[in-house]
Structures are given as C-alpha cells and as structure tokens.
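Form 12-C: Joint structure prediction
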Amino acid sequence: MTPARTFVALVHGPVWNRNHERIASAVTHLDLHDIARTARTYGLGGYLLCHPVAAQRELVARILAHWNETENLSAHRRREALRLVRLAPDLEAARATVAEACGEPPFVLATSAASRPGAVGFREVAGHVGARPLLLAFGTGWGMCDEVFDRVDATLESIDVGSGYNHLPVRVAVAIVLDRLLGGFER
Amino acid sequence: MTPARTFVALVHGPVWNRNHERIASAVTHLDLHDIARTARTYGLGGYLLCHPVAAQRELVARILAHWNETENLSAHRRREALRLVRLAPDLEAARATVAEACGEPPFVLATSAASRPGAVGFREVAGHVGARPLLLAFGTGWGMCDEVFDRVDATLESIDVGSGYNHLPVRVAVAIVLDRLLGGFER
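Section 2 - Result
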C-alpha cells in the first residue's frame, strides 16, 4: 500500500446519535488536530473532513487559516499536519476529491466499531489494496448511518481484542487502523 | 502477555516543556478519558496517573467521583473505563501500586517518541514479558526527564513509521503501543 494514496475521511453526517436518530455531529477541535497528526505520521495523502453543514465547514476553514498564519515551532508542526485537511459535504464528495487528487477513483472502505457481515480483514486490505487509492471512512457519534455503508465498496473488520468493550474514541480507532494497515510493524 | 497484568502509567512529572525545562504538566480531561477507554478496551489491569502535585491528583479524584455518581448509559461506559484509574505521585509510587496489586514487582518499560540507545523491540516485549507484570510508562509534555528513564528497567523502541514526523498525541501513542503488544492482530 502506498501511504500517499491512502486517505482518511471523518464522517460527521449522517451519523446516529445515542437515541438512534440521524444527525450531523459537531466538529471537534480535538479530532481535527489528533487525526491530522496521525495522518501526517503515517504519510497519508489527506484527511477529508465530511460535514453536511456549511457553517461547520467554514468553522474548520477558519481554524486551518489561523494555524496557517501563526508562526512558532509548535504551529509549524501543527501546520504540517493540518495542511492534509480537505473539506467535503459528504463521503461521496470526499470520494470525488480523492479521485481527482489521484487520477483514479479510490476504493472506499468503511469502518465500524460493531462487526458487520461481509467485512474484510485487516490483512487482506493491507496485502491487496496497494494498487489502488484507498479512502478509509470513520464515523463520529454512534456511527455512520446505514445509507453510508450501502454506498461504500466494502467494510473493514472491527477492532476487536476480545475484551467485550468497544468504545474507543474515533481519533484512537483511526490510529489503530492506520498502524495495522501501514505501520510496517511485524509481530 | 496477560493483559490484566499489564498497566499503563501516564507521567505528568518530571517532564520537559518546550524550552527543555523540568515541569509537571497539567492533567487533561481528555487524556484521562481516552486512555481509560483504551486501557479498558485492551483489558489492562489499571491506568496509573502520576502527578507530583496533590491538588492535581485531587482534581482527578473529583472527576472520577463525579462519573461514579452519574447514572446513564454513557456514564456507565465511562465508569467502566475510569474505574481502572489509580493516582500516584510519581512512577516509583506507581510501580509500588502495581507490585501490590500483582503480588510481584512489574517490569517497568518506558516509552519515548525519540529513539533511545538500547531500546527493546515491540516483538521482543510482546513475546517475552508475559511471565511478569508490566508497567508501560508514557510521558506528557515534551517527554519524561532523563532521571525517569534512569530508573526504569528498559525503554521500548519508538513508534517510527518512516515518515519523519513523530508528534503523535500521547493518547494516540498509548493506543498504538497497546495494539502492537496486545492487539492479537497478525499481519
């Protein structure tokens, strides 16, 4: 797999809230910075922040502009990570952005905290997807709505270490998935 | 390795600040929750929060008490993670706490974003430490001071995926290290 042709999407909507209602979740400063730093660490081509509400995308654009204009060592490191961020209204638009950047459409792979039927394994993805751009989609809130899963190319197996507890923060799940696919660590 | 005999310590002091001065870093709500959830996911025996300032430890104790007294589904999940948190003034006290919990002293393994001479590899730790309790120490701020490294049993190799950027948030580094050691994922 070529990291520069791998992208992450953070999907803010449509996602479920705790009452199983369709919502768009608020952008958090924290996920923005943490996922950007992780994406930069793993050499990704970009981090697509997908939000259906224009005002939320504008908020992110303002945050990015702030760090782009701030000059100190810490800002330099943040900027190097945040320059990977691209804004999109939804996952389909993110797919189009990646297709344009790579010259060919990506394989869109959803992730889920719950296991889903037909999910592909980490090893399979790590071993076979290299030839094509990859867009990994992560949901916020209580996970992406079914119609998002209906439109992806496949779903990745969930992170399951057998403890019976699967409430990892999305910023943490992104890191674990990227390390398994791109970390180059052999056990 | 037995997860229940593995512990993480988050060391708030002594650590370096950006000007290479010895400080104690402030506790963050975020690291507390994220690392507790990750520790619970990986089935750890505990999460030792090491802070030399009593008022900061009391602040954490109050946060833990709050979640212990709140009744709803989200609070239940948080509580299940936060009950792993133990407070200690420093890493030596954390070592003693783990020794008491396990009936034998742990092997104390420091982590570092920068590579350090003599560091042991992930595979070696995953394969050989199982017989003994393990305490993994992570630094906040710009990393643990040298005197902390001088007193540990060994240092783990750094997470290095070859991108030249190693500014992962500590809550993310904890997850990657635990997944490599305990995730049971074979590439």
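Section 3 - Comments
Helices of chain B lie at 29-41, 54-69, 73-82, 91-102, 122-128, 146-150, 170-182. DSSP finds seven helices and eight strands in chain B.
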